[in-house]
Amino acid sequence: MVDILHRVAIKAPAAEVYSALTSTEGLSGWWANNTAGKANDIGGVVKFSFVAGGFDMKVLELDPGSRVLWEVVEGPEEWVGTHVDWSLQQADDYTVILFKHLGWKEPVEFMYHCSTKWAIFLMSLKSLVETGTGAPDPHDVKIDNWN
């Protein structure tokens, strides 16, 4: 198994970053403009709809201000059964996110694409929390024909 890993520091309290990860308003502001579901309930499912497709994430763990864990239950074959793990750590005026998309079966070309897109969306999350404006799909940076 292989994983996607990223680190980003956001100049904001961990509670603000956590809120952007656990509310449909927050998630709609940085990842997918069309987001619905129960992002702040363990066992809830969040539906992310993109121009190029979508994903359903089941909320497995919520630790306010420090961790969010999702399992992909619907979406592209390569994503189903993988986990998206957000670890938050306060460091002075910054919240450091250690992001993991865990459990890819193999490093297929789509994984390369997704790794780049995760980085783009992490920067969108940073922008949303720090400035109030993110760049969610369909306003994100396009990198190829997959969107």
Explained architecture:
With 147 residues, the protein is an alpha+beta fold. It has a single domain (2-131), classed as START domain (Alpha-D-Glucose-1,6-Bisphosphate, Chain A, domain 4). Helix content is 27%, strand content 39%. The chain is built from three helices and seven strands, in the order E-H-H-E-E-E-E-E-E-H. It has helices spanning 14-22, 24-30, 109-131, and strands at residues 2-10, 34-37, 45-50, 53-63, 67-74, 83-91, 94-104. It has a seven-stranded antiparallel sheet with strand order 1-7-6-5-4-3-2, covered by helices on one side. Strand 3 and strand 4 form a beta hairpin. Helix 1 (14-22) crosses helix 2 (24-30) and helix 2 (24-30) crosses helix 3. It is globular, with a radius of gyration of 14 Å. The two termini are 25 Å apart. The mean pLDDT is 96.
Total tally of structural domains: 1
Shape category: globular
Alpha-carbon distance between the termini? 25 Å
SSE pattern: EHHEEEEEEH
Number of strands: 7
CATH architecture: 2-Layer Sandwich
Topology, element by element:
Elements: E1 2-10, H1 14-22, H2 24-30, E2 34-37, E3 45-50, E4 53-63, E5 67-74, E6 83-91, E7 94-104, H3 109-131
Antiparallel strand pairs: 1-7, 2-3, 3-4, 4-5, 5-6, 6-7
Helix pairs in contact: 1-2, 2-3
